[in-house]
């Protein structure tokens, strides 16, 4: 049985919503809790609304991904280039949702989950060049059905550890049979180089009993800075090439 673990490229088969979805992200984990539970009836009552909630997030994720793919399509026709290299989508796993809600000290209800968490549906867009990040983000936010709730620009203001990316929390409407609902989606934009750093940083975070953690952190920060200046150089090279083309 297919299970969405972490971030992965969205294949066509992933885009089928509903039934398949409830078999994976919802049921499998819920069955585990269900078996351990002392009050299985109560848990079962809660399972259906939860799966419906996850299904709505999956639809919202598909909407935003499609919007980005449409922009990519238009760009490749009009300017003969693709503004992003890859796009990856993921739904937060039920276990992680439960953990985060507990950490926040919030009750585990569908309403609270929807209110408290911004990153149940997540899309990561990996671009070749810095400028493409802002071009794509501005175009997406400019669409009249998209609401921008939050913008964190960790490229202009990197995290102290060196992490860089542009994070948006958006709301996108999904049209169901009898209603229209706005759902939150987190979109992270980064360059290939930033993504390379972030994935290695993520791997190293889980290493236990590291000696001289401060020294390690400093080296990671240095690597992030090197990567950042490479991104700037690459952008400058592209600008020169574009300028050359225009002057021809
Ligand atoms: P969360 O509650 O973890 O979502 O934090 P937040 O609400 O402060 O969100 P923020 O926008 O700072 O970061 C959210 C996501 O960005 C994380 O879930 C990671 O995917 C990514 N991220 C943020 N900081 C780092 C970092 O230092 N290293 C790596 N590898 N990823 C990061
Ligand atoms: Mg998060």
Report on this model:
The chain is flat. It has a domain of 141 residues: Beta Polymerase, domain 2. With 248 residues, it is α+β, with helices and mostly antiparallel strands. The chain binds guanosine-5'-triphosphate and magnesium ion. The site of guanosine-5'-triphosphate has 9 residues, from helix 6.
Q: What are the main properties of this structure?
A:
248 residues; alpha+beta; Beta Polymerase, domain 2; six-stranded mixed β-sheet; disordered N terminus; binds guanosine-5'-triphosphate; binds magnesium ion
The stretches of 5 or more residues where confidence is low (pLDDT under 50) are 1-5, 10-32
How many helices does DSSP assign?
7
Report the count of strand segments: 6
Named at the architecture level, the CATH assignment of the domain at 59-199 is: 2-Layer Sandwich
The CATH C-level class name of the domain at 59-199: Alpha Beta
Largest sheet: 6 strands, mixed
Chain-wise SSE layout:
Elements: E1 8-9, H1 18-36, H2 40-78, E2 86-91, H3 94-104, H4 110-116, E3 121-127, H5 130-141, E4 147-153, E5 166-175, E6 180-191, H6 192-205, H7 213-247
The structure holds guanosine-5'-triphosphate and magnesium ion.
Guanosine-5'-triphosphate is lined by residues 119, 152, 159, 161, 163, 167, 198, 201-202.
Short description:
The chain has 248 residues and is of the alpha+beta class. Helix content is 55%, strand content 18%.
């Amino acid at each position: 049985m297919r299970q969405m673990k972490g971030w992965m490229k969205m294949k066509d088969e992933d885009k089928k919503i509903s039934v398949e979805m409830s078999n994976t992200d919802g049921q499998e984990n819920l069955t585990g809790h269900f078996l351990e539970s002392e009050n299985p009836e109560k848990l079962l009552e809660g399972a259906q609304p939860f799966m419906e909630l996850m299904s709505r997030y999956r639809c919202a994720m598909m909407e935003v991904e499609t919007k980005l793919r449409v922009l990519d399509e238009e760009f490749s026709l009009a300017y003969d280039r693709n503004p992003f290299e890859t796009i990856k989508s993921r739904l937060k796993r039920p276990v992680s949702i439960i953990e985060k809600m507990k950490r926040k000290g919030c009750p585990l209800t569908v309403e609270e989950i929807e209110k408290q968490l911004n990153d149940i549906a997540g899309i990561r867009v990996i671009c070749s060049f810095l400028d493409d990040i802002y071009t794509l983000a501005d175009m997406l936010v400019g669409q009249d059905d998209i609401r921008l709730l939050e913008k964190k620009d960790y490229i202009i203001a990197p995290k102290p550890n060196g992490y860089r990316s542009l994070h948006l929390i958006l709301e996108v409407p999904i049209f169901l049979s009898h209603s229209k609902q706005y759902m939150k989606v987190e979109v992270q934009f980064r360059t290939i180089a930033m993504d390379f750093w972030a994935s290695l940083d993520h791997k190293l975070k889980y290493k236990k009993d590291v000696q001289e953690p401060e020294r390690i952190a400093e080296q990671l920060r240095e690597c992030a800075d090197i990567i950042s200046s490479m991104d700037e150089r690459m952008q400058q090279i592209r600008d020169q090439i574009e300028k050359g083309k225009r002057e021809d």
